[in-house]
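fold-stage: in
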Amino acid sequence: MKYKNMNYTKKLNKIRKKSSGMRRKEERAAWLFLLPSITGIFLFVLLPFADVIRRAMFDSMGKNFLGLDNFKLVLKNEAFRLAMGNTIRFLATCLPLLLLVSLIMAFLLYSQKKYAEFFKTSFLLPMAIPVASVVLLWKLLFHKSGLLNILFLTLGKPKIDFMNTRSAFVILIISYIWKNAGYNMILWLTGLNGIDISLYEAAGVDGAGTFSKFRYITLPQLIPTISMLCILSFVNSFKVFREAYLISGDYPHKSIYLLQHLFNNWFTNLDMQKMCAGAVICVVFCLVLILLFRKIDREV
């Protein structure tokens, strides 16, 4: 009996060693596949950003160390405050609206299967439209001589210069939601399809209503999806600058003067120390926001 146990232990140890060796081999293969990406990120992202941090603490010639003076200068800059305020206002308005609209669209598609594929394709089409075409559409609709103003004239109302009034901010939000709602809807649908149907059936047997099922089953199961959507929508929100820049140029109406306009103007004027200090402040702001999303995801 003792002899049999010794043989069994030896075989078990052999299997463990073999399993451990295979795991190490797989880990080495994974690192080899990741090496080109890690090298690229280090050379083209991390290393240049380290230089940006260094430049943010020196004068424009890079000779005299100024410490935090450039950061103080940027934080007191009126253009930076306006751009930062507009960007935060844009994010605070767009992200909840986009999540809500895309979630409603996902629920509508989830509840009916007949035309689901057709609507999925239709809602994703705005993502495939080139920025230049979107700008053309904006001009066609919102220009002084555009379709909306022709309609106003027909109704006996005065013309509105949409892109040079506070309406420009609303148009920017509508454009962002129109373009990204389809993509977010697909991600919501992925999350909804991952929820086990038996949970709803069990809740129905216990007498749970539609709201209770959403509150205690759907919402908790969608928490990882919400976190991912928040981060992706946050990153995508910075791309709306292209439309605003192409239609309004370097200095649009102050309600849509975003951080990208400011950095573009600083770059044109070769104001490197302000640009570097501003970039570091923005990266810290973005990191804090992303870490906040992650923390909420872990705690909920």
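fold-stage: in (second)
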Amino acid sequence: MKIVAVIQARMTSTRLPGKVMLPVLGQPLLSRMIERARKSVMADEIVVATSDQKEDDPIERLCKETNVECFRGHLTDLLDRHYKAGLIYGADAVVKIPSDCPLIDPAIIDKVLKCFSDGNFDYVSNLHPATYPDGNDVEIMSIEALEKAWRNAQKNYEREHTTPYFWENPHLFELGNVVWETGLNYSTTMRWTIDYEEDYRFVKRVFEELYPVKPDFGLNDILDLLERKPEIKK
């Protein structure tokens, strides 16, 4: 089974335009995101999916510089973008990862992918319900199930956010969910995504603290850091 992880990215974020190109330790944030996704041992290929709009040309150039595949498609129909990227790269299963989660733990990516691979699922995520700190979002779906959603989803938000058609129609799909094995739930109390300037400052500080001593830092390293230096918390 070929698993293709698709990182959706764009330059025209309304709340923090150009955030994927903001620098973190001398590299664009998207490069750091790609670097962490590449540490997944179960994903066979990483693809950045951006729009076909001129504003997103810098993302394609960055992909070439970092030697990662780039797919360009519809600006707002992310369901279409994920499905067509999956087809072009020969995916049996497509992983959806947002580009605003640069602290995502590769081990969590692999937990969700392993659950999908070991079971008989059409779709598995760690979001329904979510338990990990926000910013570790992983969703994986078979290409057949993705095609079913692509053919039948009609509502704008179903197209824009790719996966609502799955979890709003549980009678049509075999759905799975991965919860944090600790029993903890930090999904609403810890937010590690980048939507605003203060989010960027937080992520940048975490990288500056952890990356120089442990480039493959994970979830527990971040939690330990926040325990030792609570002033970093937003």
